[in-house]
Each structure stands twice: as C-alpha cells, then as structure tokens.
Design a protein that fits this description.
This protein is 74% helix and 0% strand. By secondary structure, the chain is mainly α.
C-alpha cells in the first residue's frame, strides 16, 4: 500500500541516518552499538502513521469477506472513525511498538552488514574494534 509505505519509509530511514551520524565520529562509519541504537529508535517515527494505515489495509482486505464493505481508503477511514472513534486507528500500537524495538535494531544491523558485504568495505565488528 503505497499510501503507507512511501511516507513511512522516509520516517524510518531519515531518523536512522541522523542518529547514526550523531552517534558516530566525523568521517567514521557507524559501529555496532550506534547501528543498534539508531535502528532501535528509528522505528518510532513511522509507527503511528504506519500503524493507522495497517488498520485501514486490514479492514480493506476483509471488506466484503463477511465483514463491512468499504468503497475505498477514505471511506474506510471515515466510517471506522465515525463508528469507533479515532482510537480505532491506533488500537494495538503499544504492543507493536514494544515488538518493534528489537526488530528495528536487528533489521538495521543486518542492513549495514549486507551493505558492507556488497560494497566490500570493512565489516561492522572490525570497525567497532578499530574505533576503540
């Protein structure tokens, strides 16, 4: 769902990059700890809007399959909020946020390791050891 993914990935990668730069000395690549911390915290930026759009996506997928029928994204949002209140879009957000901390940390650690491998640069562990 492009309405969810396009803006949410901006709120996902931008804070990650900014936090990595803040946690890393100038001219150096981020170490393992910086990547884990930045990755862990970067997921918070996209959780709210992303979660709301996931609720809408799930409701649209169930539309007509024994559940309420919606005419589209805006109709789904309008009807859901009117009938259940604004909180319906954020139900389950706390649990997803708790789960997201370790998932985002490992995701970005894997991303950095893969990028290092593909770009043939020094691995994160070696960089981290050489920084000390």
């Amino acid at each position: 769902m492009a309405l969810r993914d396009i803006p949410c990935y901006g709120f996902y990668f931008l804070p990650y990059e900014l936090m990595c730069k803040a946690l890393t000395e100038s001219g150096q690549r981020p170490g393992t700890l910086a990547v884990l911390m930045a990755g862990r915290l970067s997921g918070r930026g996209h959780m709210g809007p992303g979660h709301a759009m996931d609720v809408v996506k799930a409701r649209l997928q169930l539309s007509g399959a024994g559940g309420r029928r919606y005419e589209g994204v805006l109709d789904c949002v309008r009807v859901s909020v009117r009938e259940e209140g604004l909180r319906v879009l954020f139900r389950g957000l706390l649990l997803n946020s708790v789960r997201a901390f370790p998932v985002n940390a490992v995701t970005f650690l894997s991303y950095e390791a893969l990028m290092n491998h593909l770009c043939n640069t020094t691995p994160i562990e070696t960089r981290a050891a050489s920084e000390h």
